[in-house]
Each structure stands twice: as C-alpha cells, then as structure tokens.
Amino acid sequence: MKRTKKVSAILSLILIISIFFTNFGVIAKGENGSTSIAKPKYVFLFIGDGMSQVQVNTTQVYLGSKSNKEIKLERLGFTKFPVVGNVTTHDLTSYCPDSASTATAIGNGYKTYSGVIGLKGDLKSHPENLVEKFKKNDYKVGIVTSVSLNHATPAAFYAHSSSRGNVNDIAMQMASSKVDYFGGGSLALKDGMEEKEVFDSLEKNGYKIIKDKNDILNLNSSSGPVYAISPTIEDSKSMPYRIDSKKGDLELKDFVKKAIDVLENDKGFFLMVESGKIDWACHSNDAMTAIGEVIALDKAVNEAIEFYNKHPKETLILVTADHETGGLSIGNAKNKYNTNFKLLEKQKVSQVVLNQYIEEYKKLHKGKENINDVMPFVKENFGLITKNDSSSNNNEYKDLVLSDYEYNKLEKAFNESIKDKSNKKSKSEKEKILYGSYDPFSVTVTHILNNKAGLGWTSYYHTGMPVMIYAMGNGSENFIGYYDNTDIFKKLVNLLFV
Ligand SMILES: [Zn+2]
Fold it and tell me: 45, 74, 195, 389: which has the highest count of C-beta atoms within 10 A?
C-alpha cells in the first residue's frame, strides 16, 4: 500500500512537470528532432504607468458591477495570465519612485535616482540596455506610448540623460536609437524648440513621420523605420484619454496592431508599450478616467494575445507597471464596507475636459461667477446634483445628490477656482492637501464622485506600493515570485541573451 502511494506520487510529479513544460513551451524540438531550450522570438512588454493591483482591481470591480447585480469581478485579459509576480519599485532617491528611475530599472537593469533616464547613479555610465541588446541580436524594436514619445517611460528605453526634464535632448536621441517603430503620442518640447527640428533629424536617419490615420493604418512590414503619431492629441502632446476619445480616433491597441505589422520578421521583435495616462488620471484623483486607461491597456494586450495565438511557442508577453499613483483604495472611511461603482458610469469626460470648461466659464463670467451656473455641466458629465435639482427624487440620481457637507466642500473649491491666481501667494498647507496642484473645483468633483462610489485617494503623487507582473508564453515561468524591478531586466537578459 505504501509502495503504491509512493509510485503514484512519483507519477503525479512527472505529470505535473510535463504539463508545466508543455504549457509554458519551454522545451522545443530542434530541426533534427533534438530537444533544446527555445528562446522567445517575440517579446511584448506592457507597462501601465501608475498601475498597481488596486488600479487593476478597481477596473475589474467597475466592469463587474456594471454587468452584474451580485458581487462579481469581471476579469481583465492579462489577469488571467498563468504566471504572476510581485515587483518592488523603490529607487536610489525614494521608496516612492518616479517613472524615469523605474523605467530605467526595467529597461536598463539598475537602480538610479528619480528623474534620471538610462544612467546609473554616477549619472554617467550606461551599460547596454534592453533595446541595445535586442538590436545587437538582430531583433526589430518598437516603442509605443499613449503619452509623448520623449516622456520618461519610453525615453528610458532609448535615451540616456541625467534629467527627464531634458526633453529636447531626449527627443533628439530618438533619431540615433535604431528603434524601428515609434508610435502613439507626439513630442512635448520646451524653450521654443519645434517638433520639426526633431522630425528633420529623424528623417535624416531614414525615419518616416506619419500623422495621417489612413497612412498609419496602411503601415506594413516594409514601412519601417517609422514614427506614427496619433492624429488626435489631447493634453501635453498625449493621445486622448479613452473617456474623451471620439468615434474613429486611433487607440493604443491600434498602435500595437500596427507595431506588429511593421516589426514582424523572421528574426523576431521586442515591443514596449506604455499606457501612460493611468498615471496622469491617478495624479489628479480621477478614477473613472484611470479605469478607461486600464481598459485601453487591456485592449492593447489583447492584440499581443492574438499574435501569441498564432505563435504560441515563440511569444512572451509581460504586463507590469512602474509604480502606483494616487494611493488609491477600494473602500473608504465614509462608505465603511460598501461600494457603489455603478455611480462612476455617470462620468462622461475626464477632469481635463472639466478644467477646460471651468477655464472658459471663468473667462466669460469674470466677476459674476456662480456655482449654480456650472452645476448643469457637472450633472451632465459627472452625475452629481444639488438637493434642489428636480432629479433629486429620481431613482437614477438618488445616490448622486450632494450632502450639505459635500456641497459646502464643492462651493469652497469653486470659490478657490475662480480666484485670480496672478496675485495669489503660494498655496497653503491646507490647499495643497485639498487640491494638490489641480483646479480646486475639478479635483473636488472627482473626489466627491469617487468617494460616493466607495473609492479613496491618499496622494496626488506616486506611492511605494509594489506592482504586479503578469506573464504568459515562452519563458513566462521565470517571472513567478516576489522580486525587484531591476530583476525584470535581468530575467529577460538571462532568458534571451545568455
Ligand atoms: Zn506620475
């Protein structure tokens, strides 16, 4: 009896090991039938900027409560990946790092100071980074982001600079990067530098600059090297938030699909894709807008999954993040154990659009501003109403009526917003805590809506919360466990180049 148990235990172990290797595609048959360790040929690395597991699960709770009456999550595609890891994010400056140092850790393999792009702590040396290694090994390389292409995260994959603020110099480094495909946002430059200067330098190095939607959709494997720029641009040269997008606007997934079309070749490719505005929406404590950006990332990952389905043994997909932003929580002091995410469905635009509306309103009503003038816009786009609104007895709005406490808070914020900022001293401690660097009225609108839905925010900045990594495909088993963000680089290098 004992012996039978032992034999069956050994057989089970063999079965588990063989399932493991079959599923992860680690062992591949060589041309002569020999068995060898195959390296992935196609590597996707998705980075949700500012996306820890709380941003991911907030999205799953939102989608779940949208389509179910009972408590039920709707899973995003990448949370169903077979391998999950947990990643620490601190840098040489802080436990609450920034995108420059964290993207440097992932794309270059070492810790550096906040704000530094692709340079070690001495601010001089830069051992070969991932993109340089891929290019040396004849892979094609693509870099896609929803924000500007010279923003910190994409920059840390192709540039080296002592400060992320050197945006002009970083943009000029695109031309010598040898990256085959840049796609997504435009360029955020300063001191009067024009995009044309960067485009000219890119064109001198053989790049095509494509801004027309049809031209972008027609890109193919003979189009590179190319920089495909979203025809619609919102704030700071970024692609529009998903919540603000118009029908027909190109989305992050479209730039990923095109990247695959341009990059696919016999030697393989590496594609880094950043959903950069999860971070921006979380900085401004705008949950519904952040949810839209996580969904945009998930849809972009789906393009990679479709590619994986055609090349399952040769493809590795990683989805991770650089850091958490906003100190988001599901649950807050006001709502105890309750959430009401359905209320978020009332939000139709991002805080950026509300800011623009308030700015316009202030110009047109200077000296005669009244909160009652702007409440119809708030009702239409964020669902919040006052006690006096005729819809306050309507079932649809019953949980969106402002309490006296909330109304007073909103009125104070409105009065702050309409103040002439030109002769205003620096912000008080109270103002900094209440509004961060944001328009007081706009940020208070999303705070109230988010709090009513059961969400909480503790910061306008990045936090030290670890992030997740989700992996599927060839080599994915290497990404199990709890490790540091620099290990993502090391694991990829060990898998591909050692
Ligand atoms: Zn940020």
Answer: 45
- Write the DSSP string, 21-81: HHHHT-EEE-TTS-EEEPPPSEEEEEEETT--HHHHHHHHHHHHHHH-SSS-----GGGGS
How many whole angstroms from 275 Cα to the centroid of ligand 1? 12
pLDDT of residue 373: 97
Quote the pLDDT of residue 5: 55
Q: Of 49, 60, 54, which is closest to residue 295 (Cα–Cα)?
A: 60
Long-range contacts from 243-246, C-beta under 8 angstroms, 24+ separation: 243/288, 243/289, 243/292, 243/347, 243/348, 243/349, 243/350, 244/349, 244/350, 244/352, 244/353
CB 152 within 8 Å of CB 143: no
Contact between 81 and 476 (Cβ < 8 Å): yes
Distance CA 446, CA 343 (A): 12
* Cβ-defined contacts of 335-342 (< 8 Å, 24+): 335/451, 335/452, 335/454, 338/454, 339/61, 339/65, 339/453, 339/454, 339/455, 340/399, 340/452, 340/453, 340/454, 341/61, 341/62, 341/65, 341/66, 341/453, 341/454, 342/65, 342/66
pLDDT of residue 8: 57
* Rounded distance from Cα 11 to ligand 1 centre (Å): 51
Q: What is the pLDDT of residue 426?
A: 77
Instruction: Report the alpha-carbon distance of residue 202 to residue 136 in Å, rounded.
Output: 20
Sequence-distant (6+) residues with CB within 8 A of 197 are 172
Cα gap 370→362, rounded to integer Å: 10
C-alpha 326 to ligand 1 mean position (Å): 9
Region for 481 from its dihedrals, namely left if φ exceeds 0, alpha if ψ lies in -120 to 50, beta otherwise: left
Evaluate the CA torsion angle 219, 221, 223, 226 in order and state its sign. Answer: positive
Centre of ligand 1 from the C-alpha of residue 346, in Å: 26
Taking the centre of ligand 1 as the mean of its atom positions, its distance from the CA of residue 98, in whole angstroms, is: 6
Q: Which of 344, 340, 346 is nearest to 381 (CA)?
A: 346
CA of 287 to the centre of ligand 1 (A): 15
- The Å distance, Cα 357 to ligand 1 centre, comes to 24
How far is the centre of ligand 1, averaged over its atoms, from the C-alpha of 1 (Å)?
Answer: 61
Q: Count H helices and E strands in the chain, helices first.
A: 17, 16
Take residue 349 and report the two structure tokens written for it: 């635009």
Task: Tell me, in angstroms, the distance from the centre of ligand 1 to residue 139's CA.
Answer: 30
Ligand 1 center to 322 CA (angstroms): 9
* CA 450 to mean position of chain CA atoms: 20
Instruction: Compute the distance between CA of residue 114 and CA of residue 108 in angstroms, rounded to an integer.
Output: 14
pLDDT of residue 427: 83
Q: For the chain, which ranges sit under pLDDT 70? A: 1-37, 420, 422-425
